[in-house]
């Protein structure tokens, strides 16, 4: 099974198994990754699953939707690597994906 690495702002790493077809938010919540709350349940309406995608992985992800871009405008500390992990589904080619959790969610 594929793996995703979530890194907290303290640099604590959580390497979790990631079932293809599930969103990165579902994977984080199922594995109790600190800082990923998913309060809206994946409806792209709260930004509590905000992460920074490591630059080497950025081009491998689908582009942000307009809804995701709008929600990220209201997130704390967004940057060009920001994504809402409820909007990205896992697939085998993302094995080893590295996501950093913002300090504001730590």
TrEMBL record:
The keyword Phosphoprotein is annotated on this UniProt entry: no
Molecular functions (GO terms): 2 iron, 2 sulfur cluster binding; electron transfer activity; metal ion binding
One of the GO BP terms on file: P450-containing electron transport chain
InterPro entries: 2Fe-2S_ferredoxin-like_sf, 2Fe-2S_ferredoxin-type, Adrenodoxin-like, Adrenodoxin_Fe-S_BS, Beta-grasp_dom_sf
CDD domains (alphabetical): fer2
Regions crossing the membrane: none
Source organism, top-level taxon: Bacteria
Name of the protein this chain belongs to: Ferredoxin, 2Fe-2S
């Amino acid at each position: 099974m594929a793996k995703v690495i979530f890194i907290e702002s303290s640099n604590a790493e959580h390497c979790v198994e990631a079932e293809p077809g599930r969103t990165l938010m579902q994977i984080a919540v199922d594995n109790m990754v600190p800082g990923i709350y998913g309060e809206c349940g994946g409806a792209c309406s709260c930004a509590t699953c905000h992460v920074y995608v490591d630059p080497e992985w950025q081009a491998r992800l689908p582009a942000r939707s307009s809804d995701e871009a709008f929600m990220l405008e209201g997130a704390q500390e967004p940057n060009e690597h920001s994504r809402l992990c409820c909007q990205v589904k896992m697939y085998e080619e993302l094995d080893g994906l590295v996501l950093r959790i913002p300090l504001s969610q730590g």
